[in-house]
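User: Sequence recovery, please. Input:
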């Protein structure tokens, strides 16, 4: 199939920080049948190449000198169904939140806690997205990929092959740059199995007088909670949570808890503890902090925001300041969650 490669294209509409940077070359992937010709093109061969989904996990600090490929693969298919569950496939370019809501409306449950997370379906296994006590790996059955080193040959990875970890997967590690996620297959339940004990979900349900919530109720509540804390990228440029919750050794956590007894912490495997990055940043006095138009959000310290005219390099300078402040105060390293170019 044919496709068009354009030159000198603004990436402002394609990143949720709203950074005005330019791609030397740009094209859109609408069908996997386009892959062989795309991979053989001079722009692809010359490189570098940036595969782009919703642009919601990306900070662009400068122009991109190579080819940016927008993955716009669409479609949702029901592959299997039984009395208890369904296997549904969503193409990589589908909007994640729209897919979650569509699934719930069909009576396919399990993704309700992941409502209103920005981005596309194709990004969800790469990041192993998670929220409110749920990680997407728990619902992924298989990931459909294209092998970019084998002319786009399709490849089907089982859940175990994806090496899922906290905000991590094979797609960010050994397969980075080789495997392109083209679709994701989810095993969803026909029977509600609600998880309402994390964060403010139960409190919000009680506030609404909902004693026997449905999965759609949980989704509605998660949406309301996220909207109350997180800025809309269409209004205030951001990439959601900018820092991962750090995982440290138990001994370091014990020492920190002696100094800061209120520090939120959670088990993260044998001898490991996960800390709340937002708490660390807020208690370091950085909630609402600004360097010009680059700022830490006033309601959620995990989120860095572009108040209007901040450049990507200014946003990254702010991020480095946050990292250094937390390091000096707590001895904890914060890792950026978005890809930074």
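Assistant: Recovered sequence (341 residues):
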């Amino acid at each position: 199939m044919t496709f068009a490669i354009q030159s000198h294209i603004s990436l402002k509409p394609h990143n949720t920080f709203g950074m005005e940077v330019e791609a030397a070359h740009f094209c859109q992937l609408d069908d996997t049948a386009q892959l062989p010709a795309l991979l053989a093109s001079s722009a692809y061969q010359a490189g570098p190449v940036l595969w782009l989904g919703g642009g919601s996990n990306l900070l662009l600090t400068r122009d991109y000198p190579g080819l940016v490929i927008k993955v716009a693969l669409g479609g949702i298919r029901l592959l299997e169904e039984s009395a208890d569950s369904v296997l549904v496939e969503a193409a990589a370019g589908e909007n994640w939140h729209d897919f979650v809501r569509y699934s719930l409306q069909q009576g396919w449950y399990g993704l309700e806690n992941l409502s209103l997370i920005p981005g596309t379906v194709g990004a969800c296994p790469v990041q192993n997205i998670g929220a409110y006590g749920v990680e997407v790996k728990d619902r992924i059955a298989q990931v459909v990929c294209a092998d970019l080193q084998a002319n786009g040959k399709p490849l089907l990875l089982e859940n175990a092959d994806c090496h899922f970890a906290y905000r991590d997967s094979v797609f960010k590690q050994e397969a980075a740059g080789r495997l392109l996620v083209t679709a994701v297959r989810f095993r969803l339940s026909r029977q509600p199995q609600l998880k309402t004990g994390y964060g403010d979900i139960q409190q919000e349900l009680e506030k609404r007088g909902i004693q026997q919530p449905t999965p759609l109720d949980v989704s509605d509540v998660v949406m309301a909670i996220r909207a109350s804390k997180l800025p809309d990228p269409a209004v205030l440029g951001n990439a959601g949570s900018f820092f991962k919750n750090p995982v440290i050794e138990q001994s370091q956590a014990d020492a920190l808890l002696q100094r800061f007894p209120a520090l939120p912490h959670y088990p993260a495997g044998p001898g490991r503890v996960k800390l709340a990055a937002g708490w660390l940043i807020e208690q370091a006095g950085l909630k609402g902090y600004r360097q010009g138009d680059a700022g830490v959000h006033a309601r959620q310290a995990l989120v860095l925001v572009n108040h209007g005219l901040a450049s990507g390099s200014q946003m990254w300078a702010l991020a480095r300041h946050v990292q250094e402040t937390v390091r000096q105060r707590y001895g904890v390293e914060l890792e950026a969650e978005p890809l930074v170019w």
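The longest helix spans residues 312-330.
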